[in-house]
Design a protein that fits this description.
Largest sheet: 5 strands, parallel
CATH topology of the largest domain: DNA Cyclobutane Dipyrimidine Photolyase, subunit A, domain 3
Order of helices and strands: EEHEHEHEHHHHHHHHHHHHHHHHH
Mean pLDDT: 94
Number of domains: 3
Structural class: alpha/beta
CATH class of the largest domain: Mainly Alpha
CATH architecture of the largest domain: Orthogonal Bundle
Number of helices: 20
CATH superfamily of the largest domain: DNA Cyclobutane Dipyrimidine Photolyase, subunit A, domain 3
Length: 469
């Protein structure tokens, strides 16, 4: 009997997924996900594993639901922990598989794994690499990957000149049979990581991310049709608190529970009924940003990471991770990040700029910490955005964020910082909450760094300011 393997990575859905779509279906199909054991080992630079408890718990929820959907269609899922290449090679050889199907992911390790698999199975099993999850497949890009522009703006102009996004494909109704006698199922999360099994998002985050394709589709339906929040997105997207100032779709996109085309199609359907607006356009724009980071990561390979050996961490980095910088706007965000596994875009930009530009810490340490913490970690978007804020690599303009200005502009009353640091509630609403060391030095120490450029925002100075964006 003909047998193929679908190797799931960041594509944990059945709709719009070419891994389970066949011109001529095989008689048997084994669907496998391999959790890379290296993601669970501690990095010396950060003292934490690459995959933290929030993301691992979300991932397990995704896998459990994916298995349920596969079972409904006559198939199943096998989840292993180990070396992904070694596991897939063993399965292919044991089953005599004619092909292994895998998505092309951005990231040096991901590309190496596919190359290594191809080499080890050469002459016996074909490795079929497929584009998936994005707006554009490689053949539909407005430029070759090698000629990808250095700036997003240039890429956007080219994309908009020849915009042609294919419609998302529905999930298959049935799938080939599970190979006879093959192992199946996944271990319980508490056996993989007790910390992840017990982890719960802090309710102060005002939102709980639940893994899986159904939860992602439900959030998309709610954001577009039930709440109509998409109509306000451009004005709310810089928010800091609440469930609906952001689409919050990023964890499902990062794990592949949703594809960019599914979101694109849903937004276009909303526009067809409600009318196009600046806010719906902005959602599409951010999907395009996501594509750009993916293709930039594919173009750059190892250069995306600025060198593969992380530098040693010092006290400034540790204080930043532990929300002990003394700057409430930064510390509130770092508390939220570790407590919920998520952070608003505005807060991400500010804490990244503060680490790299004000504390002078190597940006790669910040990117590695985000990789550990974020439930929506995506290798290309995370490392690409950190490079963007740090002003290295592509489009290396200086993007220093004046944190005090940003705090007053986006958290004028200090509600956000007081929400995560209750001691600040004792101070008057406003600027005092963002500079507590000036009004209550006995309770709040002076920050590690007070840049000279902050002088225009010290207490008592009401000089007007421009946005740092």
């Amino acid at each position: 009997m003909s047998t193929q393997i679908a190797w799931f990575r960041r594509d944990l859905r059945l709709a719009d997924n070419p891994l389970v779509r066949f011109a001529v279906p095989p008689e048997q199909l084994l669907c496998v996900y391999v959790l890379d054991e290296r993601w669970l080992t501690t990095l010396p630079a950060t003292g934490k594993p690459r995959m933290g408890p929030a993301r691992l718990r979300f991932l397990w929820e995704c896998l459990i639901e994916l298995r349920g959907e596969l079972l409904k269609r006559g198939n199943d899922l096998l989840v292993r922990i180990g070396d992904p290449v070694a596991v897939v090679v063993e399965l292919a050889e044991t089953l005599g598989a004619s092909a292994v199907r895998v998505r092309r992911d951005a990231g040096d390790e991901e590309a190496w794994a596919v190359d290594a698999l191809t080499e080890r199975l050469a002459g016996r099993t074909e490795v079929v690499s497929l584009d998936a999850g994005l707006l554009f497949d490689e053949v539909a890009l407005p430029t070759s990957v090698a000629a990808l522009p250095a700036s997003f703006s240039a890429f956007r102009r080219r994309a908009e000149q020849q915009w042609a996004v294919s419609a998302a494909e529905p999930a298959p109704l049935t799938l080939p049979l599970w190979p006879r006698g093959a192992a199946r199922g996944l271990p319980p999360l508490h056996e993989v990581c007790a910390l992840s099994s017990a982890w719960r998002s802090d309710p102060r985050g005002q939102f709980r991310f639940e893994g899986g394709e159904a939860a992602g589709l439900a959030r998309l339906e709610y954001y577009l049709w039930q709440s109509n929040a998409v109509a306000r997105y451009k004005t709310t997207r810089n928010g800091l608190r609440g469930a609906d100032f952001s689409t919050r779709l990023s964890p499902w996109l990062a794990h592949g529970c949703l594809s960019a085309r599914q979101v694109h199609d849903a937004v276009r359907a909303w526009e067809a009924e409600q009318g196009t607006c600046a806010s719906s356009d902005w959602v599409i724009l951010e999907l395009l940003w996501r594509d750009y980071f993916h293709w930039a990561g594919r173009q750059e390979g190892p250069a995306l990471f600025g060198g593969l050996v992380l530098p040693s961490a010092g006290p400034a980095f540790t204080a930043w991770c532990q929300a002990r910088t003394g700057v409430p706007f930064v510390d509130a965000a770092m508390l939220e990040l570790e407590a919920t596994g998520w952070l608003s875009n505005r807060a991400r930009q500010n804490v990244a700029s503060f680490l790299a530009k004000d504390l002078g810490v190597d940006w790669r340490l910040g990117a590695a910490w985000f990789e550990h913490c974020l439930v929506d970690f995506d290798v290309a978007s995370n490392w690409g955005n950190w490079r963007y804020v740090a002003g290295v690599g592509r489009d290396p303009r200086d993007r220093w964020f004046h944190v005090l200005r940003q705090a007053e502009q986006y958290d004028g009353e200090g509600d956000y910082v007081a929400h995560w640091q209750p001691a600040l509630r004792e101070l008057p609403a406003g600027r005092e909450r963002h500079q507590p060391w000036r009004v209550a030095p006995q309770c709040f120490p002076v920050p590690q760094v007070v840049p000279a450029a902050w002088q225009d925002r010290l207490l008592g100075d009401d000089e007007a300011f421009e946005s740092d964006d």
